[in-house]
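Notes to self after the call with IL:
- keep both proteins in one doc
- input above output, always
- annotate only the second one for now

Protein 1:
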Amino acid sequence: MITREDHHATVLFSFAAPAGRKRLREGEPVVEVAAETGISPATLFRWKAQALVDAGVRDGVPSVQADELAAAQLRIARLEAELALTRDACELFDAQVVTGPKGKPRSSKG
């Protein structure tokens, strides 16, 4: 569940992030940008490092590929959870005894 504080931080971040990134690209010192935007210096250093990767100056995974990878990992996790639930449901139905229309028990396997 998202708390009010989490939502507030997300809204603040969505407005401050583009401005902070732009100022870093323009060469402003991280300490000044951090003080004026309220974004932590660690976050700004991470953005700066990622910008260098995206520009091809530094080795690493470009942002576009990282976003696609994160989305794929999330989808895999959801599919694995769904598969686990399906397997659990199948086990329950395999062990279930079905009562026929005349009240006689019969196997659920038919």
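Protein 2 (the one to annotate):
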Amino acid sequence: MERKYFSAQDFGIGIITGLAIGAIAGILMAPESGESTRERLATKAGDIKLSAQDLVDNARNNLDLAVNRLEGTFGTREKILRKRLGDLKDELEKYNLGSA
């Protein structure tokens, strides 16, 4: 049997969907008046929207951080490689056969 893997995005969407369905079901089953229920539903919808926005913002920040770390790592490695290549070039110029 083949295993199916879910991405972080799929997981986040599942969490948000589950929270929304659970909140709506809980509000609709509550023994309150229609107006009170609608107010609570509006409040919960706003809370869910804020939670979703926080999730997106956190994901975006984490992605930016990962990109910056990778750029830093590759940038450092590039500098080291350029220095080594420069050193090698200098070393090879000692044996320049064109000037003989």
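Annotation: The chain has a mean pLDDT of 81. The first helix runs from residue 8 to 29.
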